[in-house]
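Worked Example 4.2. Consider the chain below.
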Amino acid sequence: MASSSSSTVALSVFLLHLIIFLGSTSIVVFADFYNEFDITWGDGRGKILSGDQLTLSLDKSSGSGFESRNEYLFGKIDMQLKLVPGNSAGTVTAYYLSSKGSNWDEIDFEFLGNLSGDPYILHTNVFSQGKGNREQQFYLWFDPTSDFHTYSILWNPQRIIFSVDGTPIREFKNAESIGVPFPKAQPMRIHSSLWNADDWATRGGLVKTDWSQAPFTASYRNFKADACVVSSGKSSCNNGSTTSLSSSGNWLSEELDNTKQERLRWVQKNYMIYNYCSDSKRFPQGFPPECKTP
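Applying the procedure from the previous section yields the following structure tokens:
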């Protein structure tokens, strides 16, 4: 019995040390909208319904939005969304990471509404040091309004991976070696907003918002972030030193394995509808340098 008791104590001490070690690196945050997010605008149109569910609404007077209380510098972030159903033309549901300032970094999911029966367009973009114009757009292989689906951003020092229900749809690699800035120094908050963009969102602004369908509502649940949280200028991941980040969690050095690379190619072959890296009219002098990386 004494030996068993000693083993139990030793195991408990080991687990405690492991928890302390992990806590000093990346922090895993599960859905608690009350503690993790603030409704930032919308005059009551954004509502936290419970610890694990939130809604944003849009009517003719205003949309609404929220942001995370935490700032992150690298992370693996999941959110489940159910988009505006029915005739959502003219509406945009934006879900993204963004820093502050004129040279901001940003990682975007934007969902462009459409007429009933027509597919949503999932718009993605990456900004680094205030420069974006890196759009890729996709249709989805399911109806994003009938149920919740998981939209994920993996952001580590080597790459940014956008995923839907665990299937990667886009990878943006760190190409600093050829002079392309990469988001790796500015902490970012999670933001989301639902707003009217009928001057451009649906068929270039040809289809306007049908306000008789208002209020438009998007729903959120099951937020999870395994991430480096920045507070008072210090990161929970060893002060943000990229030389020691790999010890903080598998996601900090994660890359696409062969299976996920095949899924990525499947999505891009069958569901990608716009890629800035193949828009020769937009770049007559040659494509941006990151388009040439494998």
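The chain has three helices and 17 strands. The mean pLDDT is 89. Compare this with Example 4.1 before moving on.
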